[in-house]
Design a protein that fits this description.
The chain is α/β, with parallel strands linked by helices. It has two domains: about 150 residues, P-loop containing nucleotide triphosphate hydrolases (Rossmann fold); about 70 residues, no CATH class. Helix content is about 30%, strand content about 25%. It has seven helices and ten strands. Strands 6-7-8-3-9-10 form a six-stranded mixed β-sheet, with helices on both faces. Strands 2-1-4-5 form a four-stranded antiparallel β-sheet, covered by helices on one side. Strand 7, helix 6 and strand 8 form a beta-alpha-beta unit. Helix 3 runs parallel beside helix 5. The two termini are about 25 Å apart. Bound molecules: adenosine-5'-triphosphate and magnesium ion. The site of magnesium ion has 4 residues, from helix 1.
């Protein structure tokens, strides 16, 4: 799915990440941890070619991001569902319309996906909130809507940036269960989180590897988490 080879990233000449080596195999589940400001969001942005590495190489679905055209990148992005750290909804559109937005943007017939949308809303437990506007949602409801929007295009890879930020433990577990279900359906998952409790709880549900960013480098964290 994704391969990083000695990749690194600098913001304005200031090195942030370096020597990144990582292979995300199809169907794998990885957590990405590290302190605030370590570069978790930046690494995810590299993984969906929102940023290009300033050194080294990143291969996305077998093609180097450096040689990808705009069309190649938008094609690759259709296979990737991203849950952004700050959710980012259009506040004047209903929850359903926000979740359907990737369909509309890619020129699909949204009406042909009504049933699919209804099922997806039920799956994340937002059936009764289908017509609500984003500002009317609780934090946990927003996170579940963001997850639904990330999977509406049936992506192969899901990159989730702090998908359990600002929600209570019970809601974190609910989101984790949804991610584990997606992984069981064969999707490749990478979840950035600072919540070590979440990672520990995940061990009961999925076989996940834990990556940690420390000092600008990516390490495989020990099994003692
Ligand atoms: N566009 C940018 N320009 C300059 N510096 C940036 C930019 N985006 C992020 N940074 C810096 O890069 C570092 C890593 O940011 P990043 O958002 O990747 O961290 P993070 O690990 O996701 O943190 P958090 O846990 O708080 O979400 C931070 O010091 C941040 O200030
Ligand atoms: Mg972040």
């Amino acid at each position: 799915m994704i391969e990083l080879r000695e990749a690194g990233y600098s913001f304005g000449g200031e090195p942030l990440l370096g020597g990144l080596a990582l292979t995300l195999a199809p169907g794998s589940f990885h957590f990405l941890t590290g302190p605030s400001g370590a570069g978790k969001t930046t690494l995810l942005r590299l993984c969906y070619a929102d940023l290009l590495p300033t050194v080294g190489e990143i291969e996305l679905f077998g093609q180097s991001t450096a040689t990808m055209s705009r069309d190649d990148i938008s094609g690759a992005r259709q296979r990737i569902g991203v849950v952004h750290q700050d959710c980012q909804f259009l506040d004047h559109l209903s929850v359903t319309d926000n979740i359907a937005l990737p369909l509309a943007v890619s020129g699909r017939d949204v009406d042909a996906h009504r049933e699919n949308l209804r099922e997806l809303l039920a799956w994340v437990g937002l059936g009764p909130r289908a017509d609500a506007l984003p500002p009317e949602l609780s934090g946990g409801e927003r996170q579940r809507a963001a997850l639904a929007r990330a999977v509406i295009m049936d992506p192969d890879l899901i990159l989730a940036d702090e998908p359990t930020g600002n929600v209570d433990w019970e809601m974190s577990m609910r989101l984790l269960t949804l991610l584990a279900e997606l992984n069981r359906m064969g999707k490749t998952i990478l979840v950035a989180t600072h919540d070590l409790g979440l990672i520990r709880a995940a061990k009961a549900q999925v076989s996940a590897r834990v990556l940690r960013i420390a000092g600008g480098q990516l390490q495989l964290a020990g099994a003692d988490l």
